[in-house]
């Protein structure tokens, strides 16, 4: 576990700690281990106590001795020792003082990031008042730079952290926010389109938008919480109930301003963001409403409390069981990580002794612990089967080495099967097949997009194919682990990430288009088809609405989005397809209604 929680503090304090360590305990330890001692309080206090005791004993000795030279030389020596001890105590404060200085600076940097995050949280609430397409465009333009700035600052911060757990938490939360952003924009667009067209489903669109908004807000609040952590223990042993109460308090405080403004304004419209803020605050406060009103002992309150208690007991039992499994699997994984280097070293040595076999067996025992805790029977069986195969090959390899055959072709074949895969190992084309499948899906999706978007997505697919071909060529030449191959692999990872993002955007747009209003053009065409014969511009209106229907997708055909119908129906064609009966002229198109709405 790292001593300092950021790399900047570590890079400054580590040399200082080393110098102080050499100066203070050079005579005690010399250069045996050379480790830096971050906290010098204890050794310095011990030195100071020893010096004080030495001076006290020396002064008592001087007073009782008859040696005049000793009486003359000892007082200056006392002064030198006491001065040196004072300087030593002062030097011990260098590390703690420098650490306090750097921590203060680091806290200021964290507050900068938190201010940006809170600004994003405040602007996210504006989504609740966006009701037109121009408002949505303005909202997106204003939100984009802020999200980019926050993502950049979070990325720089996670690279600076030395605690891997905190880095992973920040990366995961930021990735979730990035994934939810296009979903939020799409949800707002669906709400605006539905409300503008007067179609059904406005309430569902509002719920969908608010759900995404609340999820993004929760992730950003989690980012703010993790940014303020300085040690893993602080997070691991945090009181979860207290953290939940703090999150509830934070939500109430964030909504309080909107709620008060809405309550102060007598002309505020019902149902806007202010009223929603009031309702959210009441929902949080309602959790303790009964006890706050002194009804905690009422039969209804006690019944509900008992139900909640039973539910919490079940939940706690499930969580504890899952936590025990997770802890056991984590411990096994850490044990494997400690043993893997030793096992690989034994495999690389043709003359390795029997201790290597014991290491591999211990590694396999830890892997078996993980297998026993797998929920999926297939995964468990696969791991156990692999363990048995590796154990058999290890025993055979160890037996060959005991016979002095550790460098034979048979031993080398076993060794190649036992070694962990590297960049130069052959995965039998599985990776390339997966990438080709992703590219094929991207091309299929591009065919359903309009021109500029199609070209952009196709360009991403071609870039991935080119980089994959370069990497495959380098691997075929035996240069799969060269610097050039690593650079190409990094570029391929970035290209795949971009392709995935573009495909997600395209799918979001496709879903938005599918759930847009598609019934109005059909209804208008039905009205035109049943219009009276003497209606003005009857044929022109019919032709215009039929043309509009050609470019509108129906609910039953979402996969053919914006694909024109085969041919444009004319009034003569409608007449020819009528039933043989000859209805009156005034109702000659009424037969069309069942056809339209079937």
Automatic annotation (TrEMBL):
UniProt record, GO biological process: cell adhesion
This protein's GO CC annotations: adherens junction; podosome; sarcolemma
Annotated InterPro entries: Alpha-catenin/vinculin-like_sf, Vinculin, Vinculin/catenin, Vinculin_CS
Main location per the UniProt record: other
Keywords for this protein: Actin-binding, Cell adhesion, Cell junction, Cell membrane, Coiled coil, Cytoplasm, Cytoskeleton, Membrane, Repeat
Membrane topology field: Peripheral membrane protein
Coiled coil feature spans: 454-509
Localization (cell): Cell junction, Adherens junction; Cell membrane, Sarcolemma; Cell projection, Podosome; Cytoplasm, Cytoskeleton
Annotated GO MF terms: actin filament binding; structural molecule activity
Pfam families membership: Vinculin
Region (Disordered): 546-588
Stated family: Belongs to the vinculin/alpha-catenin family.
Summary of the function given for this chain in its UniProt record: Actin filament (F-actin)-binding protein involved in cell-matrix adhesion and cell-cell adhesion. Regulates cell-surface E-cadherin expression and potentiates mechanosensing by the E-cadherin complex. May also play important roles in cell morphology and locomotion.
Protein name: Vinculin
């Amino acid at each position: 576990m790292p001593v300092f929680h950021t790399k900047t503090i570590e890079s400054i304090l580590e040399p200082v700690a080393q110098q102080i360590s050499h100066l203070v305990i050079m005579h005690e330890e010399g250069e045996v281990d050379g480790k830096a001692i971050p906290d010098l309080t204890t050794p310095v206090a011990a030195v100071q106590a020893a010096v004080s005791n030495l001076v006290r004993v020396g002064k008592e000795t001087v007073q009782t001795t008859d040696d005049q030279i000793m009486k003359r030389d000892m007082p200056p020596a006392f002064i030198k020792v006491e001065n040196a001890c004072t300087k030593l105590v002062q030097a011990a404060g260098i590390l703690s003082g420098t650490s306090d200085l750097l921590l203060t600076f680091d806290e200021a940097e964290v507050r900068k990031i938190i201010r940006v995050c809170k600004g994003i949280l405040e602007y996210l609430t504006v989504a609740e008042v966006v009701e037109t397409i121009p408002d949505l465009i303005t909202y997106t333009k204003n939100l984009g730079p802020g999200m980019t700035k926050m993502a950049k600052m979070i990325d720089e911060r996670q690279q600076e952290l030395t605690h891997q757990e905190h880095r992973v938490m920040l990366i995961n939360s930021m990735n979730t926010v990035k994934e939810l952003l296009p979903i939020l924009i799409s949800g707002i667009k669906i709400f605006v389109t539905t409300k503008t067209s007067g179609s059904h489903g406005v309430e569902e669109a509002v719920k969908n938008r608010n759900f995404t908004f609340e999820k993004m807000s929760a992730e950003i609040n989690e980012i703010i919480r993790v940014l303020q952590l300085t040690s893993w223990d602080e997070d691991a042993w945090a009181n979860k109930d207290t953290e939940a109460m703090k999150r509830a308090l934070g939500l109430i405080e964030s909504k309080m301003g909107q709620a008060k403004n809405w309550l102060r304004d007598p002309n505020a419209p019902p149902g806007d963001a202010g009223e929603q803020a009031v309702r959210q605050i009441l929902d949080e406060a309602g959790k303790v409403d009964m006890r706050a009103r002194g009804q905690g002992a009422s039969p209804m309150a006690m019944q509900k409390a008992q139900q909640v208690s039973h539910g919490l007991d079940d939940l706690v039992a499930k969580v504890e069981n899952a936590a025990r499994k997770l802890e056991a699997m984590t411990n096994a994984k850490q044990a494997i990580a400690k043993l893997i280097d030793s096992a690989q070293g034994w495999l690389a040595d043709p003359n390795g002794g029997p201790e290597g076999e014991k290491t591999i067996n211990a590694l396999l025992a830890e892997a078996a612990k993980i297998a026993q805790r797998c929920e999926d029977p297939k995964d468990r069986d696969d791991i156990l089967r692999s363990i048995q195969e590796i154990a058999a090959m290890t025993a055979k390899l160890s037996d060959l080495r005991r016979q002095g055959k550790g460098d034979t072709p048979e031993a080398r074949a076993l060794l190649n099967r036992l070694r962990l895969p590297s960049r130069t190992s052959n995965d039998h084309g599985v990776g390339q097949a997966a990438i080709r499948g992703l590219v094929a899906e991207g091309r299929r999706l591009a065919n359903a997009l309009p021109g500029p978007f199609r070209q952009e997505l196709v360009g991403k697919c071609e870039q991935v194919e080119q980089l994959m071909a370069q990497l495959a060529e380098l691997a075929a030449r035996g240069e799969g682990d060269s610097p050039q191959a690593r650079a190409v692999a990094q570029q391929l990872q970035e290209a795949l990430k971009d392709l995935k993002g573009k495909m997600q955007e395209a799918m979001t747009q496709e879903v938005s288009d599918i759930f847009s209003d598609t019934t109005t053009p059909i209804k208008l065409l039905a009205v035109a088809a049943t219009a009276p014969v003497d209606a003005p511009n009857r044929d022109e209106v019919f032709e215009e609405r039929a043309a509009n229907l050609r470019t509108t997708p129906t609910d039953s055909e979402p996969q053919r989005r914006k694909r024109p119908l085969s041919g444009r129906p004319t009034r003569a064609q409608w007449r020819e397809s009528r039933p043989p009966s000859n209805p009156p002229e005034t109702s000659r198109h009424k037969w069309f209604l069942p056809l339209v709405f079937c």
